[in-house]
Amino acid sequence: MTNEDQHNPFLKWAGGKRWLSPKLVPLIKNELKKSEGEYFEPFLGAGAIFFALNPHKATLSDINSNLIEVYFEIKRNWLAIVNEIKTWPVNEEYYYSIRELVPTTRFKRACRFLYLNRTCYGGLYRENQLGQFNVPYGGGRDHKALWEKKLLQHASIVLNNNVNLLCSDFEAVMHNSTDGDVVYCDPTYSTKKRKQFDRYGKTIFSWADQLRLAVAAEQAMDRGALVIVSNSSCFQLNNFYPRAYRIDLEKTKTIGNKAHSKSVHQESIYILDPKSRRKLWSKLGTIVNKKSTSSIASKARDNPDFIHEFLGLSI
Q1: Which of 3, 53, 217, 226 makes the best surface tag, with the fewest CB within 10 Å?
Q2: pTM above 0.85?
Q3: How many other C-beta atoms can be found within 10 angstroms of the C-beta atom of residue 311?
Q4: Helix (H, G, I), strand (E, B), or coil: what is residue 287?
């Protein structure tokens, strides 16, 4: 894979997978080259894997309509966005004035989203229960990289390369994957002590959603698709993927705006490979489990109370 094939995401995004792409993307790229299949990413976020992969055909989706609007506008109107937001200063007063705006056009909403993303604290995206962006000012962060590093221009080129953009729940999108396709899922998550996983928007990603994802992933594999799911290491989730290879990785995270504030984050990668190529996926890291023939989909189908009994958690 050449440098010309790879592009960087234009968004700052908590939990982004730019750190994972150097190892994972070559494996996915080789798979798609052989199968000529489609790439699916139903939890798009900043799309680090997608931009590094630059596939010949892709379906990208997210439940966050504001996020998908930004992708639509960059795809068709990146230069107008740059010309607009280049005039916006970066200071605390102006930041909060933009945060309080409620734009009535998709173009203006995209400009606002990009400006706030690049100038807010830690590059976070967080909404309250009313769906209002509520991250404070970042103090020193700016948005110049969007045009100085041509991030929006390059993103537009990639997005115009046979890419379908959808605002959708993940399950409906994954249902369209079939033999030879590759599905990469990176759902939002919290710590294993919590009873629910958070989405960055107003909608909560619950344990029931985690079960739906595991079932959808297994069903996609049974149709012949390669499915890769990354998630915060959480022992309960391991049992959601009995037919997957599991690889545990570590990532050093920078907290907020302070480069010296770092923590080690444990991540698990679940690989549902219809061809069961253990040797291939060991290139990504040490596989720490043995696959089972037990089906999470059949367990969930046969016992509606499975998630309660299995995890001892409420939905």
Answers
A1: 3
A2: yes
A3: 17
A4: strand
